[in-house]
Amino acid sequence: PMLSLGVPGSPTAAVLLAAFQQFGLQPGPLLFDHEPRLVWGVIASLYVGNLMLLILNLPLAGLWVRLLFIPRPYLYAGILIFSLVGIWGVSNSWVDLAMMFLVGLIGYGMRVYDFPIAPVLIGLILGPMAEVQMRRALAIGQGDPTVFVSTPLSALLIAVAFFVVTVPAVLHWRRSRKIEM
């Protein structure tokens, strides 16, 4: 779906979409016409990667099973240290380390409060594209925001999106008010 439609179907595909956008490539049907070598290179690399994983994982299966017995705090500490060293090695910037810490806290908060991570990742990837299209629509409409509701279909879609966002919050608020009374 990511290569043919430009819609990431998983967090991994969302990261790949971000990499494509960073290099100025727009995934979708035209990607197969404009960059066929890239598309077939990605598909071939998936085959090569799966073959390499098969060759590496069959003899090392026992080692991977033993890794499961490492206590989680040790694994988390190792991941944190490798991440810190990697960020510092790339940029030598305290700001980047602070940003990594902040993003880690946000991720921890999302895990504690059961926020699904995949929609957030997809929103971070698709958000800039939506913003570009909104600016383009406003430029075409000469700055008039009613261009978004100029046809019945667009008005209906915006109304449905509004209700999808607001109705659950209102229902939750009403339920919590009834419980308090």
Strand-helix topology:
Blueprint: H1 2-5, H2 11-22, H3 29-34, H4 36-67, H5 72-91, H6 94-112, H7 117-140, H8 152-180
Coarse shape: extended
Low-confidence segments, given as residue ranges, are: none
Query: How much strand?
Result: under 5%
Largest sheet: none
Tally of DSSP helical segments: 8
Helix content: over 70%
Q: By helix and strand content, what is the structural category? A: mainly alpha
The secondary-structure element order is HHHHHHHH
| Rg, nearest Å | 23 Å
- Total beta strand runs: 0
In round numbers, the mean pLDDT is: 87
Give the terminus-to-terminus CA distance. 49 Å
Question: Care to describe what's here?
Answer:
81% of the residues lie in helices and 0% in strands. The chain is mainly α. The N and C termini lie far apart (49 Å). The model has no long low-confidence stretch (mean pLDDT 87).
